[in-house]
Amino acid sequence: MRVGIFVSNSDPQIGGGYTFEEDLIKAFVEESQNNKEHEFYIISKNKTNYNDLIKKHQNFKILYCYENIFTRIIENLKRHFFTSSFLSKFKGPIERLANKNKIEMIWFTSGYCYEAMDIPYIATVFDLQHRAQPWFPEVGNNGQWAARELIYRYFLSKASYVIVGTEVGRQEVEFFYQIPKYRIHKLPHPTPSYILSLENKSKSYIRKKYNLPENFIFYPAQFWSHKNHINLLLAIKIIKEKYGLKLNLVLTGSDKGNKDYIIKNVQKLNLSNQIYIIGFVPKNEMAAFYKSSSMLAYISLCGPENLPPLEAFSAECPVISSHIIGSEEQFGDTVLFCDPTEPNDIAEKIYLMLTNPDLKKNLIIKGIERAKKFNSKEFSNKVLKIINDFGKIRRNWN
Question: Is residue 184 very low, low, confident or very high in pLDDT (cuts 50, 70, 90)?
């Protein structure tokens, strides 16, 4: 069977989606190199970094697809009128490329959804926050909610299979879009492998480059409103006033429209000499940030899965995490949970982590064990099994 693997995240500044996808592609190529049943085609709308990776693998090729304003208009019309037999005759760029190369199935590796097509495909869903928490501007304003809903409703309904990371994720897909349970596969997010790369920068390198303090709390998150930076700032203020501790907080991530608001609140709370806003950090520097920090305070309001705690586990960095739907399933007893909407609770958990070395040591040990439990190799083999099983069905038609 000819299988396409669609790569959507070509920009590292996208964040977790880029890291997740890149790690999976590399693992999938390695695990599938001796597979004789299929030919694999990495499909991308942009240049990829996988050319060197697949040179030695004869069963892998790279294809590029391009779209224009006409194809975008048609695709939007199809989403609005997805029962139209007339519009269904107009194929999108991915499907046209797939048909040209006789591809029989496509795996969409990231949480970004594209065109529903006649070719069987596997969809991967990170979250459905526009349904679960529609009040956030990034998923609810300026037509974002309607756009996401049209895409997900259209794309997921026709998917042969849907991959989610947690049981909560499965329930959301099943409930919001009435997808039968047997078409939904739960594959927990693997721990990103780049943390252990020998190419990573050192702690001394990042301290010098970014003029970092000796001790700091770390929160890597894009500047979206759902990342909950304000409640973390309030917690830092409470610790200063209640315990007399002047803690440093390092924030990394690309600006998604909320950075100026965060800076204004830093100034309003008189925390300017404690908060270090770095911006986007290259992947080969991230491990050093985790290893240099006293803890990761991951207080995002959205889930059900999140990647930074998994990265922290590999870097032997203890984690404070939001207690939200799906978090217990993903992390179990490897993190110290807090109520992300209560600055007092966040402050108490940060203080507890700082003053209880036994707790910190225990969480680091459990985190390392959790990091080893799920990896990209295991994830890739499970996806390959889904593809192999579907091949027994697909061989029934041209």
Answer: very high
Instruction: Please state the pTM of the whole predicted model.
Output: 0.89
Cβ count within 10 A of residue 143 = 8
Condensed to tens digits (0 to 9), the pLDDT of residues 72-124 reads 665 566 555 555 554 556 678 888 899 999 999 999 988 666 667 899 999 99
Instruction: Give the pair of three-digit tokens for residue 294.
Output: 């006293």
How many other C-beta atoms lie within 10 A of the C-beta of residue 233? 22
* 269-275 contacts at long range (C-beta below 8 A, 24 or more positions apart): 269/233, 269/234, 269/236, 269/237, 270/237, 271/233, 271/236, 271/237, 271/240, 274/236, 274/240, 274/246, 274/247, 274/248, 274/249, 275/233, 275/236, 275/248, 275/249, 275/251
Q: How much of the chain exceeds pLDDT 90, in percent?
A: 64
Asked if residues 245 and 239 have their Cβ atoms less than 8 Å apart, the reply is yes
Question: Residues of the chain with pLDDT > 70: what percent?
Answer: 89
